[in-house]
Write a structure and sequence with these properties.
Largest sheet: 5 strands, parallel
CATH class of the largest domain: Alpha Beta
CATH architecture of the largest domain: 3-Layer(aba) Sandwich
Shape: globular
Number of helices: 10
Distance between the termini: 28 Å
CATH topology of the largest domain: Rossmann fold
Order of helices and strands: HEHEHEHEHEHEEHEHEHH
Length: 313
């Protein structure tokens, strides 16, 4: 049964059902073919204006979105929060409403406040795409992770996927959890008990504070960095102790199945959660995740723009 995208925004994977997630992934597969052509641009967003408003620092996500917009032939405006009216005390809503008044079509936003996008979306007629909000959600990262898993493993349903590291502060973990569960994967969360809330067990997720137990049956291991910028207190004695107990390195990789994929959303803290030899090794798909992120973001922008065209005037 075919499905049509009807949402004007992409806020989180919590809001989507399995069919909507699959639609994005199927659309991304078509856009990946575009990036493999000699001429990599298509006119899908010609005449559309996309504003990139990143109120929190970003390299990979911002670059990926901007390149996706260029590949789709959109007009692009980049706003640096440090030099915007937000610095003068203007509210986020006023800032974005003024942007919208310029007849823009989509605002791609990253913000440090969890729920910022959910607050804005119903108050705006332009599309809002969440490029990360606090510790809450990062839907396009989860979509590109799942896209990569499907590409490498042929599907998601029934796979054992372990997410290892700072779950408590990770929007990537939360988004991956919702997407993976909706597509039928079995999810394990691993890390120090202070960083892996037991509440996740209510969702049917296995929670482990032992590295070997967490990764031994995993088909996919997705490692997360320790997010010191979101921690208001220390959750373990030292990074060296974390690396020794929960890091994936030459010693602990023996716990992981030989055909298991190693993933990381970046940036990597090399030598802490992941040794360079593994990050750059044959099991790693980290750079392929980056490549797939472009196709996923092209798909999201295309679908959101299409729903805006169908909205009643």
């Amino acid at each position: 049964m075919s499905i049509t995208w009807t949402k004007k925004d992409l806020l989180s994977l919590y809001d989507l059902d399995a069919a909507e997630i699959k639609l994005i992934l199927d659309t991304a597969a078509e856009f990946k073919k575009v990036s493999e052509r000699r001429v990599k641009k298509v006119p899908a967003l010609r005449g559309k204006t996309v504003v990139n408003l990143f109120v929190e620092p970003s390299t990979r996500t911002r670059t990926s979105f901007e390149l996706a917009e260029q590949r789709l032939s959109a007009d692009i405006i980049n706003i640096n929060a440090a030099s915007s009216s937000l610095k003068k005390g203007e509210t986020l809503l006023d800032t974005v409403k003024n942007i919208e008044a310029l007849q823009v079509d989509i605002v791609v936003m990253r913000h440090s406040a969890a729920g910022a996008h959910n607050f804005l979306a119903p108050r705006l007629s332009c599309g809002i795409v969440n490029a990360g909000d606090g510790s809450h959600s990062h839907p396009t990262q989860a979509l590109l992770d799942i896209f990569t898993i499907i590409e490498k493993k042929g599907g998601v349903e029934g796979l054992n996927v372990t997410i290892l590291g700072d779950i408590l502060h990770s929007r990537v973990a939360r988004s991956n959890i919702w997407g993976l569960l909706k597509l039928g994967a079995k999810v394990t969360l691993g890390g120090p008990s202070t960083l892996v809330p037991k509440e996740f067990e209510k969702l049917g997720i296995r929670v482990c504070d032992n590295l070997e137990e967490a990764v031994s049956d995993a088909d996919v291991v997705n490692l997360l960095r320790i997010q010191h910028e979101r921690q208001k207190t220390s959750f373990f004695p030292s990074t060296s102790e974390y690396a020794n107990i929960f890091g994936l390195n030459e010693k602990t990789i023996k716990y992981v199945k030989k055909d298991a994929m190693i993933m990381h959303p970046g940036p990597i803290n090399r030598g802490i959660e992941l040794a360079s030899s593994i990050a750059d090794g044959p099991r790693s798909v980290i750079l392929e995740q980056v490549t797939n992120g472009l196709a996923v973001r092209m798909a999201v922008l295309y679908l959101v723009a299409g729903s805006l065209d169908k909205a009643p005037s």
